[in-house]
Amino acid sequence: MSRQQRKAVALISGGLDSMLAARVIKDQGIHVEGINFFTGFCVEGHTHAIRQKDRNKKKRNNALWVAEQVGIKLHIIDVIEEYKDIVLNPAHGYGKNLNPCLDCKIFMVNKAQAWAWMEENQFDFIITGEVVGQRPKSQRKETLPIIARESGAEDRLLRPLCAKNLTPTLPEREGWVNRDALFDFHGRNRKPQMALAEELGFSEYAQPAGGCCFLTDKTYSSKLADLWQSRGERNYELDDIMLLKVGRHIRPKPHYKLIISREDGENHYLSGYRNEFISLESKSCKGPLALLDGVPRDGDMEQAASIVARYGQGRDAQEVLVEIRMKDGSAQELKVKPLPPDEVVSSWHV
Amino acid sequence: MSENHFELDARRMLCPMPVIKTQDRIKNLDPGDRLKVTCTDPGALIDIPSWCRIHGHAVLSTNTKDRIITIMIMVR
To answer: Does B11 touch chain A (CB under 8 A)?
Structure first.
């Protein structure tokens, strides 16, 4: 490849917009490679991988799939640690839930830039699938320049799908790309993207824009807020945020929570954490595996066991035998009466 | 071309972590080297071969036994 051929790094989320943006620029003769950041909150097939009932669903990583469709390399970068600061201290605040969308986009463009300008990579500009007016927080006419400025990418950040609505960037001014062949998409209407996809021969594409992050989900955000409140500090590890994606989360008391599996796949997944949590499981009949997160006090084990028994096949039995296994592998058994459904207080469900 | 054999344990990791670990490991290997990746997320059976295809590496074999997935890769 001669140095005259310009190089662009494309942020690939796995959705339709970033797929179109990468393809449009590649079709202009630019060498394009994709970059995708794993924050720990990405929806990408985790629950499908865990849950037995989802075994038949596609488990593919959509960003990789998009890269194959467009015909570009994809680099997946682990940003779990660095991303914590974005989730915990978003300078521009949260969206509807605990989604720091604007700070997230600034962070990702900045990380893409740091990677792109590296000596061994030497890319010329960055492209994203952003569309002005499409997202209420991060893709407004006022916020797109903030992303360019605060990420440090400045005028080397090109949004091919809405470029004609924006001030010409360096790649356009220098003639590296033909501005006339870019687009003026705006707003939440997806029809122009779908028409372009058809024109480019893409008959299949992944989720609508914005659906790739658990932090935009109300239930997930509630679980994360509960985690912080119960620990008395806003922080998390990867295992914490993975476990928020699995099972029923029931908090009968402020100092402990139960994570109760809903089916075999989750049972199997949670069993991998038995050395890190106290675990409970019905022995006299088939029932779920549950992890106890917190430090139980007097009477809590009985309460926890009766709740776990309520979700097993012995829910209507007079008595169920529940094994309580400590982190060190030692175990004891408790005979408990399953908690009647009307005594599982709705406010316990996180 | 070298033909050294290496192993990567990505069990209990959920995708895309097995892909990221494979990518980072291969970055430091030479053409001809072989990497055996062991994982438990069934998504890896799709994602690791996909990553190999777009980066030009060869998947020599895939095998699943008792929920353990083994993928053999030759670096190119």
So the answer is: no
Q: Is the ipTM of this complex over 0.90?
A: yes
pLDDT computed for residue A209 by the predictor: 46
Minimum-distance CB partner of A59 among B17, B20, B46: B46
What pLDDT, in 10s, does the model give residues B23-56? 999 999 999 999 999 999 888 999 999 999 999 9
Same domain, A145 and A30: yes
Residue B32 belongs to domain with CATH number = 3.30.110.40
Domain of residue A297: give its range: 246-348
Are both A46 and A95 inside the same structural domain?
A: yes
Contact B38, B8 (CB under 8 A): yes
Whether A74 and B51 lie within 8 Å, measured CB to CB: yes
CB-facing half-sphere around the CA of A345: CA atoms within 13 A: 6
CA distance A302 to chain B (A): 31
Q: Under an 8 A CB cutoff, do B47 and A60 touch?
A: yes
A187 in a structural domain = yes
Taking CA–CA distances from A270, the nearest residue in chain B reads B12
Mutation choice for A interface testing from B12, B13, B15, B59 by most A CBs within 10 A = B15
pLDDT digits (tens, 9 = 90+) for A259-291: 999 988 899 889 999 999 999 999 999 999 999
Could you give the CA distance from residue A117 to residue A234 in angstroms, rounded to a whole number? 33
